[in-house]
Amino acid sequence: MTGTYWKPFSPLWNQMHQFQGEMNRLFDRWNGLGPTSAAFPTVNVWEENDHLHVEAELPGLELKNLEIYVTGGNQLTLKGERTSNVPEKGVWHRRERMTGEFVRSLTLPYTVDPDKVEAKLEQGVLRVILAKHESARPRKIPVKVE
């Protein structure tokens, strides 16, 4: 004999589950930042030999509005402000490039030497080269025979 269970909250449960799915889709689409925003600036990070390379896209940013920090041995922070070049009486038809202040912090995969950091801003691309700290470099261990 098969039984039928009484489910007085099924319609409510289904609606709550549907609402949760819609909210998840909404936040996935926005990435938690807004409908057209993404983490700014966009970055690429890669390792080559004993150096870590970071490239960040910063079109339209003036060098005087950029600050770079290395803290805690493995935190890189990019801080700045990009201003708009549209006249006050201009009318927006589309606005996808972010303007205003930004702070982007990255946790680096290993400790870097804050005294051995080079940074260049060329054609709207910031290139930062960070040297591995001596403690993060691999060491060859000699093996003794007894």
Identify the CATH architecture of the largest domain. Answer: Sandwich
Strand-and-helix sequence, N→C? HEEEEEEE
Number of strands: 7
Helical content stands at 10-25%
Number of domains: 2
Widest sheet: strand ordering? 1-2-7-6
Radius of gyration, whole Å: 25 Å
> What amount of the residues lies in strands?
35-45%
Principal-axes geometry comes out as flat
Low-confidence stretches: 31-37
| CATH classification, class level of the largest domain | Mainly Beta
Mean pLDDT: 82
Distance between the termini: 78 Å
Largest sheet: 4 strands, antiparallel
Number of helices: 1
Oligomer: single chain
CATH topology of the largest domain: Immunoglobulin-like
SSE-based structural type: mainly beta
In short:
The protein is mainly β and about 150 residues long. It is about 15% helix and about 35% strand. It has one helix at about 10-30, and strands spanning about 45-50, 50-55, 65-70, 75-80, 100-105, 110-120, 125-130.
